[in-house]
Design goal:
Elements (H helix, E strand, L loop, with lengths): L12 H8 L12 E2 L11 H9 L14 H15 L9 E4 L2 H12 L8 E6 L3 H9 L3 E8 L5 E2 L6 H6 E7 L11 H14 L2 E5 L15 H7 L8 E6 L1 H4 L7 E5 L1 H14 L5 H11 L3 H22 L12 E5 L11 H12 L1 E2 L1 E2 L17 E5 L4 H21 L1
Parallel strand pairs: 1-11, 3-4, 3-6, 6-7, 7-8
Antiparallel strand pairs: 2-9, 4-5, 8-9, 10-13, 12-13
Helix pairs in contact: 2-11, 3-11, 4-5, 4-10, 7-8, 12-14, 13-14
């Protein structure tokens, strides 16, 4: 016997895409280029690697789940510099092994499955960990679509009152995956008011916060709370990571911060869950959180790629520069080249004929409440490869679209 809730999990998007393309033999005369997986591929800064090596003696000791005081202090200092927010490192900061595992684990703490109809509200499209964590915590996901006409703002106001009454946890992703949208202060104000009225906790996924394209950095949830006079960060926990910021996805390092009344039970859960961060990872993380020069350089690399690729793709796709993140969320509908709106077939043909892999949008979203899948007709492109590869991929995509247009 296995946990019956496991049967409710959907296949992960990349697993599903592999199934959908298992019969394809890509064009062998073109080098493969993947824009599918959002895995940072810029070089890891040397000083982080060096800090990791220097910390090897820490392998001889069990790490504490709460992390070293120096790491919590480094995280709190970064939050102060980045957002102007003061945190107590001892009670309002907790190291985690990347945001993915922490976002999943938090639902196991936040959900009281003894209450009938326990609900987790999440954006749609969404990072699939949100849905899986809800299902395995015996909660019901409720999907809230974003509005392309309002810069992909999530329509929180559309959620019925009876759903909010059952809601125990809300996942927020800002900057959003895959849309790149950043939540403004007015949107945070609405969500905080709903939290106060209904008592749910907000888990704010902010792992893309340091890759942005305007001079003003994205507003963070803790920053929004402080601006609105919520200095205790009640019912708010922010999740952030070094993976995208510092190009260390294999380090599996991040932290959560916010309401001490939620950090304490999360620490208790993690103590039993066996999720203490390795001592060598902690030392390297301290070095990474303390430096901003490599973050600015990384951001410029992405800005340069997006500046080249986005106008080129805009000739044939409905696509625009996002607020932040490293994804383009492009519509392939008939308004651009007459390709039709079946993004799965479009992406299969792109792989077969041009050896470029992108992720069909419907794999990142759900059809719910009688509404169509908001990812249908769109593809997600992760501009994580080299500038040369991203530009070459864009040229092949343009050729693909023009070929389809000629056939229409």
């Amino acid at each position: 016997m296995t946990n019956p809730r496991l049967k409710r999990l959907h296949p992960y998007p990349f697993e599903r895409w592999r199934e959908l393309t298992a019969d394809i033999v890509p064009a062998s005369h073109l080098a493969p280029i993947s824009l599918g997986i959002g895995e940072p591929r810029h070089k890891t800064p040397a000083f982080i690697e060096e800090a990791l090596v220097r910390a090897l003696p820490a392998l001889s000791s069990y790490p504490a789940t709460a992390g070293e005081p120096a790491l919590r202090e480094a995280a709190a200092a970064w939050v102060q510099r980045r957002y102007g927010v003061t945190l107590d490192p001892a009670t309002q900061v907790l190291p985690v092994n990347g945001t993915r595992e922490a976002l999943f684990a938090f639902a196991q703490v936040a959900i009281d499955d003894s209450k009938p109809g326990a609900t987790v509200v999440m954006p749609n499209p969404f990072y699939q960990i949100y849905e899986g964590s809800a299902l395995l915590a015996a909660a019901q996901p409720h999907y809230v679509s974003s509005d392309p006409a309002r810069n992909f703002a999530v329509d929180w106001a559309s959620v019925p009152g009876e759903v909010w009454a059952r809601t125990q946890l809300v996942y927020v992703c800002s900057p959003g995956n895959p849309t790149g949208a950043v939540m403004p202060l007015a949107e945070w104000k609405l969500l905080f008011e709903l939290s106060d009225r209904h008592g749910f906790v907000i888990a704010s996924d902010e792992c893309y916060s340091e890759i942005y394209f305007r001079e003003e950095p994205p507003l963070g949830s803790l920053e929004a709370a402080r601006a609105l006079g919520r200095s205790d960060f009640r019912n708010l926990v922010a999740f952030t990571s070094l993976s995208k910021r510092s190009n260390v996805p294999g380090l599996r390092s991040g932290f959560v911060a916010g309401d001490a009344r939620w950090i304490a039970p999360f620490l208790l859960y993690r103590t039993y869950h066996g999720s203490a961060m390795s001592g060598i990872v902690q030392r390297a993380s301290i070095a990474a959180w303390g430096d901003e020069a490599h973050v600015a350089a990384n951001r410029e690399l992405y800005r340069a790629k997006f500046a080249e690729v986005t106008p080129l793709l805009a000739q044939v796709l409905d696509v625009q520069l996002p607020d932040a993140g490293f994804y383009l969320w492009a519509r392939i509908g008939p308004a651009r080249g007459g390709q039709g709106a079946d993004e799965v077939q479009w992406a299969r043909a792109l792989l077969a004929q041009y050896n470029v892999s992108v992720l069909p949008g419907r794999l990142l979203a759900r059809a719910a409440d009688g509404q169509p899948n908001p990812g249908a007709g769109r593809v997600r492109m992760a501009l994580v490869a080299t500038p040369q590869e991203c530009l070459e991929a864009a040229r092949r995509i343009v050729a693909h679209c023009r070929e389809l247009q000629a056939q229409a």
